[in-house]
Amino acid sequence: MTPNRLDNIFSALADPTRRAILARLALGTTSVTELAEPFRMSGPAVSKHLKVLERAGLIIRGREAQWRPCSLDAAPLKEVRDWLEHYRRFWETSFDRLEEYLQEVQTNGDSDGTDQR
Amino acid sequence: MTPNRLDNIFSALADPTRRAILARLALGTTSVTELAEPFRMSGPAVSKHLKVLERAGLIIRGREAQWRPCSLDAAPLKEVRDWLEHYRRFWETSFDRLEEYLQEVQTNGDSDGTDQR
DNA sequence: CAGTTATTTAACTGTTTGGTTTTATACGCC
DNA sequence: GGCGTATAAAACCAAACAGTTAAATAACTG
What pTM was computed for the model? Predict the structure, then answer.
């Protein structure tokens, strides 16, 4: 059941530690131990988080002597942005307008999703 | 370990079935059975997915006789958009520019993330 | 080569997740 | 009240997840 790119990206982003790591990396490349420092968590735990981020394509790992520096790669976030864009009108439309619209639709048990906007 | 809003939103979005449900709901309110139809999956399974989406605030559930119609609520997506916005410059900046920048930073083992851009 | 440092892998554990089937609830209808 | 339909809840299960500690790997250093 091959999970697609968005699956990996979204689930990588679903963890606060990983988002914090990304925030940290937004300030610049760092080593694993340094990334681990702010979290009360073992090294291997952070290492695993990094692997998840790497699988999602959100970080790139280098080789600097015994360090494997991590750097942010925001390209996948662009994909997220594109996916989100699809729903933009739904949060831009005022709430009341939306609810009103929904009431209309639900009264005639619409099934093929004909969109009367 | 109370998961925060973004945790719930991102993990709700991390499943393809749930994203498909949202896409479906973007076309209009529907019943649970109708939502379930396109997926080869039991009713209760869909019901659980809906609960996840509801917990993330992405859907609103109504009461219409024995139906519990679902409708999209995109407000949480706005939060995601706002979070993403934080990283915008990273995907807008050309890749080469980013890597170049990272090399600079990593050569002086920067730890406090002083951002020289 | 032996020692130190940085990081990963392995093995294990408890919890969450995504699915199942079976049972319960809620409502409308006769 | 009893039946059919729509949905949720319960109980269960296997796989994935997030963490742990201990051992392995890789690179520099003396």
Answer: 0.80
Task: Tell whether A60 and A18 lie within a shared domain.
Answer: yes
Give the structural domain span for A57: 5-74
Tokens standing for A23?
A: 């925030």
3-state secondary structure of B114: coil
What does the DSSP assignment read for A31-69?
A: -HHHHHTTSSS-HHHHHHHHHHHHHTT-EEE--BTTB--
Q: Which residues bind near strand C, taking a CB cut-off of 7 Å?
A: A 31-34, 43-44, 47-48, 50-51, 61, 66-69; B 11, 14-15, 17, 40-45, 48-49, 52, 63, 65-66
A115 CA → D11 C1’, Å:
40
Residues of B whose CB is below 8 A from A91: 74-75, 77-78, 81
> Is residue B92 domain-shared with residue B50, that is, in the same domain?
no
Based on the fold, state whether residues A45 and A83 are members of the same structural domain.
Answer: no
For strand C, which nucleotides have at least one atom less than 7 Å from a protein CB? 5-11, 17-22, 26-28
DSSP β-bridge partners for residue B72: B59
Mean pLDDT, all residues of chain A: 83
Q: Do B15 and B47 fall within a single domain?
A: yes
- Reported as a single tens digit per residue, the pLDDT across A62-107 is 988 889 999 999 999 999 999 999 999 888 875 555 555 555 555 5
